[in-house]
Amino acid sequence: MTQGAASKAIATLEYHLGFALFERTGSGLVPCEGVEQFARKVRSSLQNIHEATRVLSAQRMRLRVLTLQAYSGFTSRWLLPRMPKLHAEHPDIDLRLTSAHDGHGKVPDGSEARIRYGRGHWRGVAADLLFRDELCPVCSPSLLAPHGAPYPPEVVKAMPLIHLRGFPGDWNEWLAVAGSRDVKGGRSIYVEELSVAYQAAESGAGVVLGQRKHLTRELNAGTLYEPCAAVLRRELGYYLTYRSELLKDTAFLAFRTWLLSQARETGERG
To answer: What is the dotted CATH code of the domain comprising 133-234?
Structure first.
């Protein structure tokens, strides 16, 4: 602060107080009686205000930890690639992920919210649809050359088929939609988790029925592709489920809004 600015500030303060704080002498300003004690108290009060502001800001900026339980395939292929967006848009939310099985097994308790797969009806919780089933065969270009696509379903089912144990009828449902007969006697690979099934397909081990919404990056990059045009669409889908009282939690509400917006973008991009 310049000398002129300091003089103006003192004059303004004296005007508001109604009395002089300094005596003007030939050698400069001399504090009036009691002014130094007044200055110490004001300085102490300003320091208290600064500290209180710092504490309040730290409390407001403190991370809100949300625990979400999700299937490994959903987490690895759909959610994790979007986490940088969540961190950038909501730096106060710390999302903790726990794993759930991709099959029909019991889901352990303890999470505030869960990603569930089904028809949207679970007792005691609210459910928001993220996206419904769009299942199509996907495989590595090293297994089946893309330049021959689209292939008839008979060619696809002659390849090693990767099955998710919790959903043994998926391939037969897809073949019915594709206008072909049931899978009989073909080579098969059985896995417990969808994330493993996707890895097997990427390695060229076989063809998997993949969720289109899970595999946007891989299909765009060409590491996986759709060898047949038929798509199995069902009422089953992925839902965000939670106790309704969580909607009073501002951090959870922000996360829910963000997650639903990401799901809408996924649908719009196909």
So the answer is: 3.40.190.10
107, burial (CB in 10 Å: exposed 0-12, middle 13-18, buried 19+): middle
Do 200 and 209 meet the contact criterion of CB atoms below 8 Å apart?
A: no
pTM over 0.70: yes
Domain 64-131+236-269 CATH class label: alpha beta
Measured in degrees and rounded to the nearest 5, phi and psi for residue 45 equal -65, -40
Residue 197 has pLDDT above 90, yes or no: yes
CA dihedral 63, 69, 70, 72 (to 10 degrees): 90
Cis-peptide into 160, omega within 30 deg:
no
Torsion of CA 132, 137, 140, 145, to 10 degrees: -140
**What is the residue extent of each domain of the chain?**
3-61, 64-131+236-269, 133-234
**Fold equal for 64-131+236-269 and 133-234:** yes
Q: How confident is the model at residue 181 (pLDDT cuts 50, 70, 90)?
A: confident
Give the type of residue at 203. Answer: S
CB atoms within 10 A of CB 269: 9
d(Cα 222, Cα 120) in Å, to the nearest integer? 33
| Residue pair 194/72 in contact by the 8 Å Cβ criterion | yes
| The two structure tokens encoding residue 122 | 């679970």
Q: Residue 116 is which amino acid?
A: R
Q: Please give the DSSP secondary-structure letter assigned to residue 86.
A: H
